[in-house]
Write a structure and sequence with these properties.
The complex is a heterodimer of chains A (235) and B (239). Chain A starts with 6 loop residues before the first helix and ends in a 6-residue tail after the last helix. Chain A has helices spanning 7-13, 17-50, 56-68, 71-83, 87-96, 104-128, 132-140, 145-156, 158-174, 177-183, 192-202, 205-229. Chain A contains twelve helices and no strands. Chain B is built from six helices and eleven strands. In chain B, the strands form two sheets. A six-stranded mixed beta sheet of chain B has the order 7-8-9-3-10-11, with helices on both faces. In chain B, helix 4 (138-151) packs parallel to helix 5. The two termini of chain B are 23 Å apart.
Chain lengths: 235, 239
């Protein structure tokens, strides 16, 4: 994974490759992870909020586990499951031709696992808090279950859902432990937090300072974006 | 002639027991009684939002609930329209889009919008089409809710205390509108109220509820001329 725009452009803007490359990897991986997390997380959140079936609590607990675990533990299990001998590694080789550890796809998977609970929990809570009378009104209007979800429930829960997706994106972007263990800090799969860690460990210190500042700026931009999105009136 | 609505249901909720039976023909049937008498519960049972413990409900000859036969047609498939006490307009959609969403009979977005616009015109709310529900007054909201309730070409329209949250002036104005629009639409209606004056003005038949039971039933005689006249109620039956 390399820069998303030509290096000559970045050089003309004065952005050095040691900033742009890890930022590009981070943004790209977090973006891909967030798409998966949003689609699956909102769908599962809807199911957990609206469904009446045994084991709902257990499902939510299992999927929320990465929130409570140190990221290094998550990374360890991903590394041993994805990289160690067994059916998961065999499936990776069958589908991709090689194991996914120490690759960009491995980073995306680590970020999906780490960020999924945020999207799931925010979405489930937001959907569960929608006033059920609006859904009843929609039923009297003849709307089917999926149309009620699309036209009534999800739009009414949008603020919580948007916040959850943004939190997941932020979590994916900022993940260090799981990503480091799964990616091994190979040059083509070095994210911003790993680049910062390398700069702190091996210098120069100025690089660490700039990388930290860029991450603070990105985090501020995300939070500002969330606050703006939270004010949207409708989809 | 097939009755517009036949209800014979019982439902226990905690200490409260509802056990009612009545029929409705064309026009407006009013369920009248004090709060907690079971009127709104009856509407919820007719709408299919709640299931009765026992009994049957038939809308225009179609059995939609039959506990003995384990028949429970879903709310979506009952072809009803419903107007709620506080309108329950979807806050994230414009007035027009609220009504469009309820239109079932027309295929095509443009055709559905035309149907919705015509209903908004009939309730005098066509100028509100682009506005959000949050910017409407209580009376405007209920006009739109009435348009939405009728826009789906329902076999029966249910009105759950549609005027109780409004001030007296608006309430009187909307009574006339509700009666005129529903009568001209030809859709039979069941309206719940605890206001005696409202029951007299709106109903063709008034059923009195008390503590989960039908306490009386009477027809309201109305003049043939279009000008509505108040206080023309006459008791014809009692339970």
């Amino acid at each position: 994974m390399t820069a998303l725009v030509p290096h000559s452009w970045l050089n003309s803007l004065g952005i050095p490759p040691w900033v742009w490359n890890p930022l590009s990897v981070s943004l790209h991986a977090a973006f891909e992870a967030t798409i998966v997390v949003a689609v699956v997380g909102i769908a599962l959140g809807y199911l957990l909020a609206k469904g009446r079936f045994p084991g709902r609590g257990a499902i939510e607990t299992v999927f929320s586990l990465p929130m409570a675990l140190p990221p290094t533990v998550v990374g360890y299990y991903l590394l041993t499951r994805m990289g160690g001998p067994g059916p998961i590694r065999n499936a990776e080789i069958h589908l991709f031709g090689h194991p996914l550890t120490f690759t960009f796809t491995g980073i995306v998977i680590a970020q999906i696992v780490e960020s999924f609970p945020y999207c799931l929990r925010f979405s489930r809570t937001a959907i569960a808090n929608v006033d059920p009378r609006f859904e009843q009104a929609a039923r009297t209007m003849g709307l089917s279950g999926w149309r009620i979800a699309i036209f009534v429930t999800l739009p009414l829960a949008r603020r919580g859902i948007v916040a959850g997706v943004a939190m997941a994106f932020g979590r994916a972007l900022g993940d260090f432990g799981a990503t480091l263990i799964v990616s091994g800090s190979v040059p083509t799969a070095t994210t911003m937090p790993i680049a910062l860690y390398n700069a702190v460990s091996y210098g120069p210190h100025r690089q660490a300072m700039v990388l930290a500042l860029v991450q603070v700026s990105v985090a501020l931009a995300i939070l500002f974006g969330v606050s703006r999105l939270g004010k949207i009136r409708a989809w | 002639m097939t009755a517009a609505l036949e209800v014979a249901v019982a439902r226990q909720i905690g200490e409260f027991e509802l056990d009612v039976a009545f029929t409705a023909e064309s026009g407006i049937l009013v369920l009248f009684g004090p709060s907690g008498a079971g009127k709104s519960l009856t509407l919820a049972l007719i709408a299919g939002l709640i299931r009765p413990d026992t009994g049957t409900i038939t809308i225009k000859g179609h059995v939609v609930t039959d506990c003995a036969e384990r028949i429970h047609v879903s709310t979506q498939d009952r072809r009803i329209g419903m107007v709620f006490q506080d309108g329950l307009l979807l806050p994230h959609r414009s007035v027009l889009d609220n009504v469009v969403l309820a239109v079932r009979q027309s295929s095509g977005r443009r055709a559905r919008r035309e149907v919705a616009r015509s209903w908004l015109e009939q309730v005098g709310a066509d100028e509100l089409a682009a506005r959000r529900p949050s910017s409407l007054s209580g009376g405007e909201r209920q006009r739109v809710a009435l348009a939405r309730g009728l826009a789906g070409d329902p076999a029966l329209v249910l009105l759950d205390e549609p005027l109780s949250a409004l001030d007296l002036t608006v309430r009187r104005e909307l009574r006339e509108l509700i009666r005129r629009v529903i009568v001209s639409s030809g859709v039979p209606a069941v309206l719940v109220t605890h206001d005696a004056e409202e029951a007299e003005e709106l109903g063709d038949v008034v059923i009195a509820y008390n503590n989960g039971r039908v306490a009386g039933r009477r027809s309201v005689k109305r003049p043939v001329c279009p000008e509505p006249r108040r206080g023309a109620a006459e008791s014809t039956e009692s339970a």
